[in-house]
Structures are given as structure tokens and as C-alpha cells.
Design a protein that fits this description.
This protein is an all-alpha fold. Helices cover 70% and strands 0% of the residues.
Length: 183
Amino acid sequence: RLPRSDRQPGIRAWVLDGLRSRLGHRGGAPAATATAVALVACLAWQTHARIPDWRSDLALFGADVAREPRYREGRHVLAVALAAAGRPEEAREQLLALFEGPAGDDAYYSFLRPAGSAGLLCEINLELGREEHTLELFGTTLRASAEALATAPGFARCGARSLERVGRLDEAEAIRRALEAGR
């Protein structure tokens, strides 16, 4: 298998440079055509090598996360696919890796909204009977403030159920009232 093209564009750059230089020379059209055909063949081969990964989200994003562990969006989609496949423990591991991931220079920029992953982790923790873990991770986030609830109402509802299950009924009710008032 070729390395991922977005990490090692060297082959494509080399081929494109060769194509550009051949077009500038007299009689370079046949060489340029051959170079273009080689480039298309290379890209086709890379696509063919990747086809088995496209059989499911589990395969695709499992392979992507294995290649690039800092791929946060892929890790989230992998967790969703694992949860949908009835594998909540594995989904939980993927989500925990998002929240406990690298910081500082090792951090990886992401468009992933933490509230969506937090809501999914909360739901999985409820399914597994680990409400305490949700409250441990996100306890300070779970409050009945309009700002917190407006950004992640699904997470807030799940948090209220978690609070309820551990016997913190007053806090759960305050979140529910605030959600109802925000409608």
C-alpha cells in the first residue's frame, strides 16, 4: 500500500514537476502524456487500495483512526458506529480518548464540537450504568444556566437523567425546569 497521499504528497509533486518540465521542452507532449497516465494510474491504485475500508463506517473510521490517532472527527464517527453496532464499551473508549487526548503542542485542531461527544458519552454511560463517570467528567458543566443549556440541550437532558439516577434529584429537576423555560 502507498502511504496516505495527504501525508506524503512527494510522488504527486514529483510527477507534476516532471509533467510541467516536459511540456516546456520540444517534443515533450508524449512524455507529458505518459506522465499524466502514470499519475492517473497511481491515484487509481491508491483508490483501489482504500476500497476495502469503505465497506462500513466501522472499517473506514477504524482504519483512519488507526493511521492517525489524533483524527478527532474520525474518532467521534467511529464511536457513533460502535454504539450503533451494539458495542458501547468500545464506543466509550473512543470517546474517552477524545476527552483525555493530547494537549499543547501534541493537540490536533478539530472542528468537532465537544458537546456532541459529551452527549454521546453521557448516553453510553447511562446505558452501561456509569452515571458517576459522566458526573465526574462533566459535573461543572452540568448546571441549570441558560447559556450551558442552550449550547447542548441533549447533553443537559442526559446529565439530568444521570443526576437523577445517582439520587441528586434537586439538581436534575433544576436542569429540567431550565430546559423547559428555554423552549
